[in-house]
Write a structure and sequence with these properties.
Layout: H1 12-22, E1 31-34, H2 44-59, E2 63-68, H3 78-91, E3 99-101, H4 106-118, E4 122-125, H5 129-136, H6 153-165, E5 174-177, E6 192-196, E7 210-212, H7 214-224, E8 229-233, H8 240-249, E9 257-261, E10 265-266, H9 273-281, H10 296-302, H11 306-316, E11 324-325, H12 327-341, E12 344-345, E13 347-348, E14 351-356, E15 365-370, E16 380-385, E17 388-392, E18 412-415, E19 420-428, E20 435-442, E21 460-461, E22 463-465, E23 470-477, E24 502-510, E25 522-525, E26 529-533, E27 544-549, H13 555-560
Helix pairs in contact: 2-11, 7-8, 11-12
The structure holds adenosine-5'-triphosphate and magnesium ion (MG).
Adenosine-5'-triphosphate binds next to helix 2, strand 8 and helix 9.
Length: 561
């Protein structure tokens, strides 16, 4: 059970459940569902809904179903079903075998629709989609009755049966609920509940020529599964009246209720499957699991932990106010989780060669290093040290700016866990003038990085030994969009894709112990951030790491420092 992981602040949905339980409204039961449409991969917004639905069920000793809302055969695929199952499991939730599909209820849904027809509460409309839209009216204008609204029950039944048999073309007829064309709530203006669609379905094949619409399917699926609290996002608020109308007008096995909460909006990304699909199919990213994507599979590949995502979802809370969340909230949840459990190692991403002139040519040492600065239980390791090492290019400045406490000519710094070194000479490329090598001397009495005589050095650098280091590719990810709210308005949101959202460094050097890492292992590269061995491309011959997150807030600050 995950619910008790953190002290959970209450939210309005918990209050509703508490009241329902106090009034014995649901016979003491709490049964929720997470209802993804299998038309794409899950994203961090879905995680909010997953944590809420599964979290509530586990808190109240209830159940949560995983329900695939698969009523649109055009866009749905088995690949997505499998990916969704993997992602929900990875997040740490278990549907205990209750893997449900709306398509399993197609026969029952057909019978419910027939029941509405028989009650005179549904009719077959033969207007075109455009006419139906026109007749629907607007927020300020009442709708108009379709000329087919008063067809007899027999005619409606006959047409509906023939729709099912495939006698008509797509769009020729629809089945509509007969409610109220003058309703202030447009959802109640005789909504379409079935349409003709001659398409193969990923589960039912070619069995059906008609498919039920979301508003009709969802509430009845909830009723069939005995869901007590059907929790969805705010855009369905107006549809609640239709939800209730369907349940009230049919003899269903249970009477579920719908509650709405604000969806998660996260800065510098987009959380809409339609848009994410575009990014994938148009090749703006390498796939659904490209580590820049907000999908759970991408976030996982990037190195996020499931716990960090659950903490984040708890932290942002559940309200009815639409807000945008800053990426730093998610990153802080992640840093908190990673800090405690992630071993520290040394890696040099942009290497600069350093020769320690007074260190004997053949000497090698193994220096003791802690795997975690605050957790002795994580133990120590030995670091190989020798005459030639590499440091980070950024850690040297020939003409240091103010407050630059790292290496520069004549200055002394500490090599972490190793020695104090002083820079004596700078070698440059004759053509380009770039610094290509430094010559330094070390103080043999500073072994372990400890000051021999109380003298202080301000900078401590990470390093690797040339003779021992292993090569690696490191992928540095930045935000996918350069604008906080790229999909605001109707403009071209893709113009805000960040052209610098990934930088691939192929000549990185790692301390040799990382040879034994496995795909998905996480490390803190000291002073650089948290990194994760890439799930897909990792091999021990060619290590590939993804930067999960920097050590401090804001990429930009880090870049500038
Ligand atoms: P999208 O807009 O990305 O296509 P959707 O709502 O169409 O998402 P569904 O597969 O229907 O995707 O969503 C499954 C569940 O997840 C629904 O209950 C939906 O309300 C919820 N959900 C989707 N996006 C978010 C979000 N950004 N924040 C919270 N819950 C969400
Ligand atoms: Mg949807």
């Amino acid at each position: 059970m995950i619910a008790s992981e953190t002290t959970t602040p209450t939210n309005f949905i918990r209050k509703i459940i508490d009241e329902d339980l106090a009034q014995h409204k649901t016979k003491g039961r709490v049964h929720t569902r997470f209802p993804p449409e299998p038309n794409g991969y899950l994203h961090i917004g879905h995680a909010k809904s997953i944590c809420l639905n599964f979290g509530l069920a586990s808190e109240y000793g209830g159940k949560c179903n995983l329900r695939f809302d698969d009523t649109n055969p055009d866009k749905e695929e088995k690949e997505y079903v499998e990916a969704i199952k993997q992602d929900v499991s990875w997040l740490g939730y278990d549907w205990q075998g209750r893997e449900c599909y709306s398509s399993d209820y197609f026969e029952q849904l057909y019978d419910y629709a027939a029941d509405l027809i028989k009650q005179g509460k549904a009719y077959v409309d033969s207007m075109s989609a455009d006419e139906i839209r026109e007749y629907r009216g607007s927020l300020t204008q009442s709708g108009q009755d379709s000329p087919y609204r008063d067809r007899s029950v027999d005619e409606n039944m006959d047409l509906f049966e023939r729709m099912r048999k495939g006698e008509f073309k797509d769009g020729e007829h629809v089945l509509r609920a007969r409610i109220d064309m003058a309703s202030a709530n447009i959802s109640l203006r005789d909504p379409v509940i079935y349409r003709i669609k001659k398409a193969s379905h990923h589960r039912t094949g070619d069995e059906w020529n008609i498919y039920p619409l979301y508003d009709f399917t969802h509430c009845l699926s909830d009723a069939i599964e005995h869901i007590t609290h059907s929790i969805c996002t705010l855009e369905f608020e107006d549809n609640r009246a239709l939800y209730d109308w369907v349940i009230d007008n049919l003899d269903t096995p249970s009477t579920p209720h719908q509650y709405e909460f604000a969806r998660l909006n996260l800065d510098y990304t987009v959380l809409s499957k339609r848009k994410l699909i575009e990014l994938v199919t148009e090749g703006h990213v390498s796939g659904w699991d490209d580590p820049r994507m907000p999908t759970l599979s991408a976030i996982r590949r990037r190195g996020y932990t499931a716990k960090a995502i659950r903490d984040f979802c708890e932290r942002i809370g559940v309200t009815k106010n639409d807000t945008r969340i800053d990426m730093s909230v998610l990153e802080n949840s992640l840093r908190e989780d990673l800090d405690k459990q992630t071993p520290r190692v040394m890696a040099v991403l942009r290497p600069l060669r350093v020769v320690i002139d007074n260190y004997p040519d053949d000497m090698e040492e193994q220096l003791e290093a802690a795997n975690h600065p605050n957790d002795p239980n994580m133990g120590n390791r030995k670091l190989d040290f020798a005459k030639v090492i590499y440091i980070e290019r950024d850690d040297f400045m020939e003409e240091p700016v103010k407050k630059f406490f790292r290496l520069s000519p004549g200055k002394e710094v500490r090599l972490r866990y190793a020695y104090f070194i002083t820079c004596n000479e700078v070698i440059k490329d004759a053509d380009s003038g770039d610094v290509i090598e430094l010559h330094c001397s070390y103080d043999p009495d500073s072994r372990g990085g400890n000051s021999p005589d109380g003298r202080k050095v301000k900078g401590t650098l990470h390093w690797v030994s040339e003779r021992h280091a292993i090569k690696a590719e490191v992928r540095l990810y930045d935000r996918l969009f350069s604008k906080a709210n790229p999909d605001k308005g109707d403009g071209d949101w893709k113009q805000f894709l960040n052209p610098e959202s990934v930088e691939i460094l192929t000549d990185c050097l790692l301390e040799p112990g990382l040879r034994h890492a496995k795909a998905e292992d996480r490390f803190q590269f000291e002073r650089l951030g948290y990194f994760c061995a890439d799930k897909k491309d990792w091999s021990s011959d060619k290590p590939v790491f993804n930067r999960t997150v920097t050590l401090r807030d804001s990429w930009k600050k880090i870049k500038a420092s």
